[in-house]
TrEMBL record:
It comes from the Eukaryota. GO terms for cellular component: cytoplasm. Pfam families: PARP (PF00644). InterPro entries: Poly(ADP-ribose)pol_cat_dom (IPR012317). This is Grass carp reovirus (GCRV)-induced gene 2p. Belongs to the ARTD/PARP family. GO terms for molecular function: NAD+ poly-ADP-ribosyltransferase activity. Residues 34-111 form the PARP catalytic domain.
Length: 223
């Protein structure tokens, strides 16, 4: 009988701690997770979104909110009224908060999920809803502040550079506005919130100082 010993740990994260996790469309977003998603829009609207942030849609299949998807192909098909040469796909970082699954026509919370304490409504792919003719995954985020543009996923060649430069300028201004509100933990290398230090403790085996948010630790001299 062989005995295997492992000293340390390794974490597989669902997006609640690491930002920008890319889930498959059929995977349920976990509450409080931060995920990579996409939004399709026109060239003119892309300029406004990058410069000023998202605004709520006043209506839609899931009511008010910002409509996004983890399926880039779905985002690339919007807006329906625009030609391909006038479509832009924005890559986003989305903090979903509390998530409600909407998976059938006339769901009792289809338009009221936010009033029940949810931050995001999620329509899984191929759930059979007649209003989702494509059968592709869709999300609606109530608060636009939960959605941040991080890259230009797709754009006409004639406009891509302009949008990238505008995004870089806006991102730089945003970081400058944050000031020194976030420091970096020397152990886990993640930003601390408003200077609040992470909790640290010693490994029970090797005595090394650890941050409780570290995703992996292997004792020195161990495989």
């Amino acid at each position: 009988l062989a005995v295997m010993q492992f000293y340390g740990w390794e974490v597989v994260d669902d997006g609640a701690s690491f930002t920008g996790v890319l889930l498959e469309p059929s995977q349920r977003p976990q509450n409080r997770g931060v995920y990579t998603m996409y939004h399709g829009t026109s060239v003119a609207s892309a300029r406004l979104i990058i410069a000023n942030g998202f605004k709520q849609s006043s209506s839609g299949m899931l009511g008010r909110g910002v409509y996004v998807s983890r399926d880039k192909k779905k985002a690339a098909s919007y807006p329906k009224i625009c030609s391909a040469s006038n479509r832009v796909v924005l890559e986003l970082r989305v903090c979903v908060g509390r998530v409600k699954r909407i998976d059938k026509d006339n769901h009792p919370m289809q338009h009221t999920w936010h009033t029940h304490g949810y931050d995001t409504a999620w329509v899984p792919p191929k759930c059979g809803m007649t209003s989702v003719k494509s059968g592709m995954e869709e999300d609606c985020v109530f608060d636009p502040k939960r959605v941040t543009v991080v890259a230009i996923a797709n754009a006409p060649d004639t406009i891509r550079t302009e949008l990238q430069e505008l995004l870089a300028k806006t991102s730089k201004k945003s970081r400058r506005g944050d000031g020194d509100s976030a420091d970096v933990c020397p152990l886990c290398k993640r930003k601390t919130q408003q200077g609040a230090q992470h909790i640290k403790q010693q490994c029970w085996k090797c005595g090394q100082n650890l941050c409780i948010l570290m995703s992996k630790h292997v004792c020195p001299g161990r495989p």
